[in-house]
Specification:
2 strands, 9 helices, single chain
Amino acid sequence: MKCQQCEKPATFHITDLTDSEAIREVHLCEDCAREYLAQQDQKQNEGDWTQQGSLAGALAQQFKVKQTAEELAQLDKRECPVCGITFYEFRNVGRLGCPHDYVCFEEELEPLIINIHGETEHVGKRPLHGAEYAERQTNLIRLRREMRDAVSEEDYERASQLRDEIRSLEEEPSGD
């Protein structure tokens, strides 16, 4: 969904409940949300929103206290050492690159997973494939990334070695 003020992706979805019990939804990007909340803060000169328990006030306080643009930029640059996906790519695509990403981005993912699922521990059915299968898949992802990097660096000898390793791993029986 796009921001209602500009063309950036909307990351804040604010629902305003007015005195007349009308509901107004606003979809904004981070920059526009800051402006919107600042405007709302000016309109509410009667008192401190955070003391009144207003959600918009809490969000405004969150902006002031929590993550600065610098911290977010550093977080976006963090990258999984196995598959190479950055946190920025995950935020934009909404999909992780490999099982190791859950460990690499654990601090950032845990609140998100709790919000979505209500728990952080799986209680349902388990996959038929064991840990060996997951490790094999992780190795394949790592080798493919290394091969892609070798080709981009024009190290074709290394790329061919990696290609052969990938083929031999893919041809091995999976042990199901």
